[in-house]
Amino acid sequence: MNAMPLPIVDYKFCPQCGKPLLSVDFSGQHRPHCPDCSFVFWGNFSLGVGGVVWHEGKVLLVQRAHNPGKGNWTIPGGYVEQDEQIAVAITREIREETGIHAKPLSVIALRDRPGEKHDAYIVFLLEYLGGTLQGEPEEVSDLGFFTLEECENLPIAQLSLSVIKASRTLLIPTSPGFLPQTGVKMIGGDQAILYQISKEPE
């Protein structure tokens, strides 16, 4: 498989130490590299999250107020901030866009879109906790809870409808839990958060 060319970037100097960068071959891919502090530009990435929230047999949707997809209906979601945990990001986005409070239960899907910016999007199933429907005007032109049949008759994003249908198989008492485990040590000594879909066998 041929490596996808990295996007053109303005990096001529290291963003960490300010020294000139060199182009170095890493496994067949030329990357900006700093010989002084070992910084490597690995690529341009973004991480988004979306959430499926059911309440009384209906699922939460928002109507996009801007392009791309203005006027289409989707599950609520958005981008993860640089210093933000993904589980915090999805609850924040749902609260900001809809006024609804929810708790992550499980991961439903992962959308992967390589390109000049490698875009990944994680879809969660969340438990409805409460709140009052109130859209964020800059992001949402309308919102509400809809039955699956109503969803199928809306101008709805294909990904949203697909994950809504998939989520129904998880709406059972024995559905896997979403268990964040903090303080997991990585190679090099840093710590991270491990999100497990279910408990390890006892």
Automatic annotation (TrEMBL):
Belongs to the Nudix hydrolase family. The lineage of its organism: Bacteria, Bacillati, Bacillota, Clostridia, Eubacteriales. Residues 44-168 form the Nudix hydrolase domain. This is Hydrolase, NUDIX family. Gene3D superfamilies: Nucleoside Triphosphate Pyrophosphohydrolase. InterPro entries: Nudix_hydrolase, NUDIX_hydrolase-like_dom_sf, NUDIX_hydrolase_CS, NUDIX_hydrolase_dom. CDD domains: NUDIX_ADPRase (cd04691). Transmembrane segments: none annotated. GO terms for molecular function: hydrolase activity. Its cofactor is Mg(2+). Keywords: Hydrolase, Magnesium. Coiled coil: none annotated.
